[in-house]
Every structure is written in structure tokens, then in C-alpha cells.
Amino acid sequence: MGWTFKIYPTIGIARLGNCPNDGVSDFYVGPEVPGSVIVPQNGYKDSQGRVRRQAARFHIYCWEDGVFMGEIDSSAATITWTVELANTKAAFNQFHGVGHTNGPLRNAAVSDRTSLMIKPGPRTIGLGGQALFNTGQFLGTAVPLGEIQTDANGRLLVLGGFGASNSPTNAAITTFANNDGWHDDVSDGPVNATVRIGGQTYQAEGAWVICPPTRFAPPIPHPISLYDTLLQAMVDRYGYQVPATPSFTNDIYPLLRSQLANQWVSSKLSASYYAALSAVIPPPATAAQRQAIFQQFRPPSTPPTQTTSKEMPAIWTDYFADLKNNGWVNHPLTVTQYNSLAAWAAGNFVNDWVGYPSPGTAYTPDGLTRAALENCSGGPFFPGIETSFLTRDQYPFIEPFRLDGTALQAGDLTKQNAVPWQTDFYDCDFQSPLSWWPAARPEDVFPSGSSKYAGWERGVKSPAAMIQLWSGLGFLVQSGNAVVEIDRTI
């Protein structure tokens, strides 16, 4: 069998920021250990209030005859990285809801479809190299998408765009998702590498990078993360096996914690719900207490447009476009999450609780992937923040969480998302009676020093204003037992 090399994380996340590219202090590396929250040493913003970009860092691990040998870096091999980024939103179909994949084109009147695709092409670097994705254009206007470089060990660093959204034709903003004549600088694409060692050159198994909008609430876990959603896709589509008996620490507590943390980004749920959640930590709690929590969650088997008394999670369904009314039609947990919660409620779980878990410090291949994906929204995809329902429902994988790069093109993971992203970001505030993505796009927050909720987007009065003012919005940080808003400059 010989040597095998693989790139991790399998899907990396490099977030936008408008801090200029004039030094390494102007970005930070995103989470690389599950459960970790990155607070940059110099803050999320620079002295002028500009948002620092979050870099995605890629590592290479090796196996010899199927035996794991660990990470390999530039001290032992010559590593050459090739990355391609693209933004093809404006050339793809309009978004009109999950499953509506054959709708009209965005910018249908533009016959030269390539003029709508920001495709600077691939870039290749080695140790100490740097390359810019600065040659792509939208309707003849240059749109930089970011850059790549390496760290001192030869690992790859990908930095995305600057949050710049514009219309070269001065087109009006008319919808939350499909604004003709507009572009943003979100992107995605394949990450590949060759490894030269012992006089031979090997092709590493490739990865993918997504360069999505800023995450303004890093301490707040998603009720359904992209890791949860893709894990379920691996189970459903490829027979991936999950443990039969859930661990309280690894499976149940993260679910409960995500629900508890909602109080820091939304004022809409009752104090009694949070009290009931707190009462079951630490385990085992009583059977009645566990059942009281479990009975509030919508079964995944419920038809997606059906109203229900099962109120949690309190986020809208994927199928919002198909609803006939604004009843309580919420998005369910994944089947794996729900089954874990059901087993816990029945007392069938591993009580491995030894206290509130702290993130580890060691990098592992699977840990790098989980750390990246658990900080992304796994639904609802209307159309989504980091990626869309196409990744969950259609795109092929060659192994758990590793996309089949031969079946995809740069730009595919973000092409169904809103253009520009800020219009969707503005509209996805609380929409009675449910929320959209409060863990990614807060609704209500506690400004530092205040004990009262304030609207997170206060002062931003329109989608057009969000395009101009997004970087002035506040970040959420842990402050003792609370989560507060800081760095607001609007």
C-alpha cells in the first residue's frame, strides 16, 4: 500500500473581514479543536474598527500501509499547495426554497454567463509563498477573493474576501436572496497538495475551503451545526455508523448547551425553559425532568410543512417557502441528534460526566474537521450562511466529510446562497413566531455593562444599510457566566 497523505480539515472555514492585508496581525486562525472558541489576541477588530479575517489552516497527515503516522510538515517533506476560489452566485439559479432547484436564472438577461462568475483561477505556493486571488471580475469589475500563504511549518493558510458587495450597474436591492447586478466576495473551492518525500512525489487527498460571512457570536453553539447535518448525511447516504448509546458529555450536553446559550442571542424563549434545561445538568436528573425536555423537540419524521406543538428547536423550517401560513413550523434536529435525546430521556445513555468539559489542545485529523464545521449553521438552509442544502442533499463525498472534488467546481458550495450575503443577513432577524439563525446572526443581545436586551442590528435600517454598515456590528464574547456584546461601532 505504501504512503497515503490526506488534507485536514476536510472542509475548512475562512471568514470574511474588512481589515486590510498588511500584516499577519490582521487575521487569526479559526477553531482547530472541537469545543474551542477563538478570541484573537488583538481582538476581533483592529484599532479602526475593521473586522479581522478568520483564516482556515490546512494540515497534512500521513498513513503508512494503513497505519497512522501523524502530521507531516515542511521539516520532513516538500509540500506544494494548490487552491482555487470562485464566486458563481450571480450565474446560478435564483433561490426559491429547498428542493426548488430548477428555478429561473439570476441575471437571466446577461448572455455572457462567464462575466457573472468571479473566477481568478488556481494558485500554487510552497513554503513561505503567498498568492492573491485578485484577477477575478464581475461584469468587468475586479473583485478580490482573498489569498493563500503558509505558516512557518508549511501548513496552508487560506484567507477569504473583505465583505465587499457592490453593483457595477447600480442595480436596486429588491430581494433577500436574488439581487441581479450585484456581487459579493464570498467564495469556495478545492484545496490540493503534493508531498515530496524520499525522492517520490505523492498527491494528497484533497479538501475544500468555504469563505463565508463573519461569525459575530463565536461563544454560541448552533442547535444544529453543519457537523451535525453532514454527519447525518454520512449516516443516510453512506451507512456511516454512530455509537448505539449516546454519551452525556459528547452527545447530550452539547445539545442542551446550545439551547441554554440561546438566551444570549434571543429574548423570545421563556425563562422557565432555560430553568428546565439547567435542572438536568449535571446528570442523571430524574426521568420526569429528562422527558419534559425531550417532549418539547419536534420529531424529524414530522412532515416538514406541518405545524406542531413540539416547539424546539425554535428555528424556522427549511421549507419556509412552501408554508401556507405562519404557524409553528420549526426545523427538527437531525435523526441522530433526536435519537440520542430520546435514548437519554429513557435513561439509556453513558453517564460519563466529570464536570463541564474543556477543549483539548492536541490537533487530530477528525478534530480539525469537527472544529471547523461545528461553528457553522447546519440549518435551516433558507438559503444558508456558510453553504446551502445542495451540500447536504446532493453533493457526493468520497469518505466521511470529504467531498468528491472530481464532481464539483470552485464556487459550488456557495452558489445557491444569497447575493449579496448582507441582504439575507438583514432579513433573517426574528420572524414571528420563530427565529432563523440566532447563533450565527444574533437577534437580541446584552451590550457590555447592560442588564437589558438590545436589538443586535439596531441602527441598521435596511438591507442596503447592512451592506454598508455590517462591520460596525458587535461581537459576542464570554464575560464570566454571561455573554455580552462588545466592539460595536455603529
Describe the structure.
- The chain is of the alpha+beta class and 490 residues long.
- It is 17% helix and 21% strand.
- It contains nine helices and 21 strands.
- It has helices at 226-238, 248-261, 271-278, 287-294, 335-345, 365-373, 389-393, 421-427, 463-469, and strands spanning 3-8, 11-13, 27-29, 53-64, 67-72, 78-87, 118-125, 130-132, 137-138, 141-142, 147-150, 156-159, 187-197, 200-203, 207-211, 397-399, 402-403, 444-445, 454-455, 475-479, 482-486.
- The strands form six sheets. Strands 1, 3, 4, 5, 8, 11 and 12 form a seven-stranded mixed beta sheet that branches.
- A hairpin with a 2-residue loop joins strand 4 (53-64) and strand 5.
- The model has no long low-confidence stretch (mean pLDDT 96).
Question: In one word, what is the shape?
Answer: globular
Give the termini distance in whole angstroms: 58 Å
Percent of residues in beta strands: 15-25%
Radius of gyration: 22 Å
Topology, number of strands: 21
Major beta sheet, specifics?
7 strands, mixed
Uncertain stretches of 5 or more adjacent residues? none
SSE string = EEEEEEEEEEEEEEEHHHHHHHEEHEEHEE
| Overall SS class | alpha+beta
Number of helix segments?
Answer: 9
Assign a percent range to the helix content.
Answer: 10-25%
On the 0-100 scale, what is the average pLDDT? 96
